[in-house]
Amino acid sequence: MAFNLIELPYPDTALAPAISAETLSFHHGKHHKAYVDKMNAAIEGTAHDSASLESVVAAARGSNAGLFNNAAQTWNHAFYWHSMAANETAPSADLAAKIDEAFGSMDELKAQLKARGAGHFASGWVWLAEKGGKLSIEETHDGDTLADSGFNPLLTIDVWEHAYYIDHRNARPAYLDAVVDGKLNFAFASENLARGSAWTYPN
Ligand code: MN
Q: How far is the CA of 97 from the centre of ligand 1 (A)?
């Protein structure tokens, strides 16, 4: 069974001007699709063909870099689309309390997400994650993921250049400002926190 390229959870104009429809058409329709297609080609006819995406990621980690990167990028991008919304959504009372506990305030969480994203060297991902009841900001490089990490990922932001180059050229901080100030889906983060285990790919 091949994995599907998930649909965007909003119209392709929903995130503009932070992220334009043109960026989404490339990022979802070309980049994300290519990861899904390459993964599907790699698993066709193997035992992975009937596995969950999370188990493909975990099995390929450390043993099959090509499959791992495409499977992890399939997962990361789906999670990223859900991490954003046309208008910022509100955290649950539990998430708001944990943000205050870990960062002092929502404003400080946002400042730290921007700083970590801007400071991340080359391609990768910045995450708000939970482990043992505590929130933290984590970074993964290139295609690496928190899907099978022991962290419960709550939100992610893609900091590969393809995420922002059409709209913001090389100005990664401008992209981060635009996404972090108004497009984060804290309702999705709250669902992830309440579940208490990592989100699973909706194939
Ligand atoms: Mn990407």
A: 30
Number of H helices, E strands in the chain: 9, 3
By the 10 Å C-beta count (0-12 exposed, 13-18 middle, 19+ buried), 160 is classed as: buried
Contact 89, 185 (CB under 8 A): yes
CB 38 within 8 A of CB 56: no
Q: How far is the CA of 165 from the centre of ligand 1 (A)?
A: 11
Residue 136 in this model has a pLDDT that exceeds 80: yes
pLDDT of residue 49: 87
pTM: 0.98
Contact assessment for residue 195 and residue 118, using Cβ atoms and an 8 Å cutoff? no
Determine which helix (DSSP H) or strand (DSSP E) holds 134, and give its type and residue range.
Answer: strand 134-141
The tens digit of pLDDT for each residue in 155-192 reads 999 999 999 999 999 999 999 999 999 999 999 999 99
Which residues are close to ligand 1, an ion, with C-beta < 5 A? Answer: 158, 160
User: What separation in Å is there between the alpha carbon of 126 and the centre of ligand 1?
Assistant: 12
